[in-house]
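Input:
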Amino acid sequence: MDLRVLYHPGVVVHGSRCDVKLPRRKPSPRRSAVRLVLLVVAAVALASCSSVLPQSSLNPKSVETQKIDELWRLVLGIATFIFVAVQLALVVSIVKWRSREGDDTEPRQIHGNTRLEIVWTLIPAVILAVVAVPTLRTLFELRAPAEGDVLRVKVTGHQWWWEFEYPDIVGPDGRPLVTANELHIPAGKTTELEMTSVDVIHSFWVPPLAGKRDLVPGRLTYLKLTPLESAAGEVIPGQCAEYCWLGHADMRFRVFVDAPADFDAWAAAQLEPAQVPTEGPAAAGFETFMGTCTACHQAKVANPDGTVEVVGTRIGPDLTHFGSRATLGAAILENTDEHLRAWIDDPSQLKAMAPELNDLQAGRVLGMPDYGLTPQQISELVALLQSWK
Amino acid sequence: MTVHGAAHHPPYAELHRFGLRLFIASEAFLFGVLFAARFYLLGFERAEAVNVTLGVVLTIILLTATWSSHRAAAAARAGDRGAMQGQLLLTMALGVLFLALVVVEWSAGFREFPISTPYGSIFYLITGTHSLHLLIGLFVLASLFLQARRGRLGEGDVWKVEGGVAYWQFVDVVWLFVFTILYVL
Amino acid sequence: MAVATTTAPTASTSGLWSWITTVDHKRIGIMYAVSAFVFFLVGGTEALLIRLQLATPNGTLLSADAYNQLFTMHGLTMVFAVIMPIAAAYQNYFVPLQIGARDVAFPRLNAFAFWLFLFSALFLYSSFVVGGAPDGAWVGYAPLSTQLKEFIRMDYYAIGAQLLGVASLAGSVNFIATIFTMRAPGMTLLRMPVFTWMTVVTSFLLLLSLPVIGVGLWQILFDRNFGTLFYAAQAQGDPLLWQHLFWIFGHPEVYVLILPAMGIVSEILPVFSRKPLFGYAFVVFSGIAIGFLGFGVWAHHMFTAGLGPVAEAGFGLATMLIAIPTGVKIFNWIGTTWGGKLRLTTAMLFSLGFIAMFVIGGLSGVTHSIVPADTQQHDSYYIVAHFHYVLFGGAVFGYMAGIYYWFPKWTGRFLDEKLGKVQFWITFVGFNLTFAPMHILGLDGMPRRTYRYPEGLGFEFWNLLATIGSFLIALGVLLLLINLVKSYRKGAPAPADPWDGRTLEWTTSSPPPVHNFDEIPVVHHVDDFWYRKYGVDEEGRAVRVPEVTGGTVEVEVGGEDHGEAGHDIHMPSPSYFPIIAAAGVVVIGAGLTFSSTPLVGFTLLGLGVIVTLWGLMGWAGEPITKEAH
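Output:
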């Protein structure tokens, strides 16, 4: 079983403009230099390809990142110009004025030139003033509170996973939609994230959709994202960008940009309770779930008698619709039976965590422990969880 | 010291006074940051249980000690070794009294606003840091006093007394700020 | 030509004891340099392990835990135990020589600062064998740094950084006092070499910024061990307070790392261009301006933390302003080479490389002031690329230039130039191969401080390239090490003035006598030494003055010449009290670290206080210059 952490683009982009093929390996070592150059060229060419660089900030897919990208390109252009000019001056100076054999003359002793000093103080000042205007304009636009028809999502950072709550999408029982590690948002509409953390500082970063924003315990921070309508159907990876200890590299998430109708359908499905199974391995799995998992996980379940109740504790991710998710372990693994079995068996094998340091009384949770379940119990749990679509 | 050296090396008094000023500037930043942290975290909030009367007593003690330390430096400049030792002793006694009262205050304070409260955190860190500096000042004064008693402080060593006293007075002035922001505001 | 390789005139000048008790700024400088170089090898090894881990996706060489310790220690080591002490090495050795002084203002404080630095750095490294090294990143962000109180790792961070800070503070007081009070006659402030000027600026930056981080580190220590709540969000504490305190220190600290290197480059370029520094006053004042502005831009490290758009706009604009004096410096350096006669020695190559690389680091720095764009760059590999261009392509290149430039003065021998040029090109190529790809990685969405990355995000190729580059850098460092060892033992002998220098350190023998100058020079110009050797003709070209007679100083002082004069000059006597006091302070620190186990903690604390008092009492009671032996 291959349990290496792998990112699979959730959706294949058809008709992609990114059909650059990497050069095939050739055994001849003589051509390695050529290959290196080709690789560099190919890699640079790939830089604009969303299917190859799904997490790149250079592929803006929201109104906000398009503004950022526009600003970035302006600054990059100016910086490149200055870079070339200064390096050229330096190289010309070195080539032109380097000492040559047999030339014994001494250079003229020039101490400076005040007019030149004023010029090269003013030129950068003017350039910066020019850059400052769009910078401030974009900054205030991006930081302005979202207005109009806005979808609100509360984001809570945990070591090392993400909780998403939709306070305005509420079921008949009054419970809002809660999910983990997979954020669904509608294309063409602004979503405003209201973010905080329960433990240490995290940072929400999904480069194609928004610049990063920290999740600071004790504070609320806000982030707007308005995916382009053309981005509908895309699955965009993101991850935590503020170092948060062991699981930092594996604190990932995915943003599903849905067409509005798809989003509504998804939300409606997510508000439904999970069915408590009455027979088969899943039923046995539910016994284990109630006996073990509910110590940290919550689920909204419909009992066979039709009553709906919320079981468990809201410490770890909500599992009501676990089976509908594409990933597990904070978006580090595809959600397959095999992966889930391995995860339940010993989570720390797949992701660096420190469950031995958990202190539920003090509210400190540093990963899911290995409960020592038997293979049969695990299979039953897998059957249960995957049935909760 | 030879002629070359003397022409070149500035008098130790001047040098050390300069170095001490730099050090005090750095220390002033240290306390400035502590005070800033107090307002950053708590604004003007203050625990009701702070013993203002005791704070006033502590302030009076340190102001007296400032005066006596000033007299000690003046006596050193005048070459009056006996008076200098007396004033140093008085200053140190006031310093020890101050620290003793801080201990009293803390033991009462720990019940009213423990260290694991927001105000307690600020209060004990600031007063503790100040007391630590006062303790260092006491050590400096004691070292001067002992050197004087053994006759090791000559005419050329007035700067040592002045330096020790300057540091002491700096710590006293810091207390005025500590008193203002922890007891009064 | 007389080659002065003899040692100083006093008796106890060799053997371990003489190094332990030395108060000679030159020996202290050498000890700083050697320590910094050893830590450079250690920190570099940590970097290679990091790069090996990241060479392929899902690297399995290191666990997340090991990786976290390594990158934290890599950062702490390179900042506090390599770049700061290597700068201190040059400052110690050359500032008194450049200002025509026999000594520093506080020789014993200087020795204390060195020993405290060394012991603190060793203390920090002792954590590897006592429960693991700090693993909260060099920025130690709260509340992560205060979260796990059962691990003592971040106590090592809080104490180790605090002690290193105290050492730097002591060094700064010494440098400022030395430069302000001990300059040779005629050496006005605006006749001082630029390196000395940058020492003034960095010393003030340290003097005023270290107390800020000091308070922050205290608060971390107290939150961890004594139940305070400074950074506890649930009880009126605020994690952002730490970020403010850290960066009010941290940003000036960046200039502390780079400004001395800028000073070195400003020394080397004129010497090997055979022209004065273009716009001396502008270079000096732009250095001062950078220092001042450095205190007003800290929040650009916090553009994603949610300070609000008004604060972000203000700090963004202030950050842009820094580009102006920085640009002035770069233009003046190029102006210095323009119209000169460039001798492309290794020192000159590293200086020119410094300019080229620093331009890149400076420009990527300006992109951080574009706040919206910075929200994409922040905490990504783009930042890693940026600050390595500033601190490696900038600072380290500058210090390497300094090694080749000043090694003859240190040892009386040249470094091997051929090997040096090979080293330069390997380092230059390796450096760019390592760090240029990181710009792309960051923009493509790779965050920093991640111990692994998955396949399929497009990170594979650039990471592999960076790893290959890092081993080229390692090869370059290895060549430098070989060159140092080889040349120290049998390099070509160097005269007093091997490069046709401009500043006073070249007027005395190589290596200088213990009292630096037989006669204190009298200064009439910037680059005074040059004007003793050269005049200008009607075209403004330099013309050698036929006989070196002007001034009071012999250009080349033979080893045998200074014997007579040397006996007349009373230098401060060796003292072992500084090392005792420094050891005591570090033991106090160790006691605080172990406060969770009171028996060990209090024992160490008590022992430390006693040893410190012993050191300080002895220090205070001991005359600075004992009677002649």
